[in-house]
Amino acid sequence: MTASPATEMNPSNRRLGMALVLGSALTWSFGGALARFITVPDPWTMIMWRSGFAAIFLIGMMLWRSGPEGALRNLIRMGLPGLGVALCFATASTSFVVGLQYTSVANILLVQAGGPLIAASLAYLLFRERVSLGTWIAIASVIFGIAVMESESLDGAISPIGGALAVVISLSFALATVITRHYSHVEMIPAVTLGVIIAGVNAFFHAGDMSVTLMDGFVLFLFGAVNLGGGLAIFIAGARLIPASIASLIGTAEPVLGPVWVWLIHGEVPSLRTIIGGAIVMGALIAHSLGQLMTRER
Questions:
Q1: N or C, which terminus of the chain has less Cβ within 10 Å?
Q2: HEC assignment per residue over the chain
């Protein structure tokens, strides 16, 4: 989602947009820390409750913004591209919760951070969209950084399932980004709402004991309605006020801060290879975003 030139030229709007996108990154960064508080042993039960709370929040937001008729119209209008985005989001949100059972929060978030650059390579493969040499170098750096992180699965240091799911999350978000860019009529909120509903229904048929304690229910509410739904609402409000390059740069706060919260709150320390590989991924993403921003300003 990009801002119009008139909107970008307004300094107050630009500052507000930057603050909102930063707020969304901060909100999302607590996802891993919240998940570590939940004592439910079955990840499918977690997914079902999280998706249910997120769906209630997002449906309420759709009704507030567009009314019943407008919300239904937007849902129908998004068509097959919207369904594609919904399936990508359902896959990513499910893989995030399941992946946390097998690997560290840092591993998942830092692999996921490479999504925007992986999206550029997918856009080239699917639509032959031109990709600059600088972007190809950044993509190669991201792939190398991910390989460094996931190399731990080769010697048994981490489960290959966790590493594979982290890659699935990144690919899912990248594909959703490409679809949204090439089908601009797809609205994010209806598509994501359908995605969390799909994830919740799928989890319902896989879940065992669906009962949760009062404390787990409260944390799952925060995990779904506030962390997932609220973070998305803040991001949508801010991203339309600033260029995509700035939004991507500010968004790096999520994968940077997420592992910090889990370390401070739960004592989960990322491995050396996760730190090295993550630094490569983040460095490539930040350098690429700054390069785009400088090009835009010139």
A1: C
A2: CCCCHHHHCCHHHHHHHHHHHHHHHHHHHCHHHHHHHCCCCCHHHHHHHHHHHHHHHHHHHHHHHHHHHHHHHHHHHCHHHHHHHHHHHHHHHHHHHHHCCCCCHHHHHHHHCCHHHHHHHHHHHHHCCCCCHHHHHHHHHHHHHHHHHHHHHHHCCCCHHHHHHHHHHHHHHHHHHHHHHHCCCCCHHHHHHHHHHHHHHHHHHHCCCCCCCHHHHHHHHHHHHHHHHHHHHHHHHHHCCCCHHHHHHHHCHHHHHHHHHHHHHHCCCCCHHHHHHHHHHHHHHHHHHHHHHHHHHC
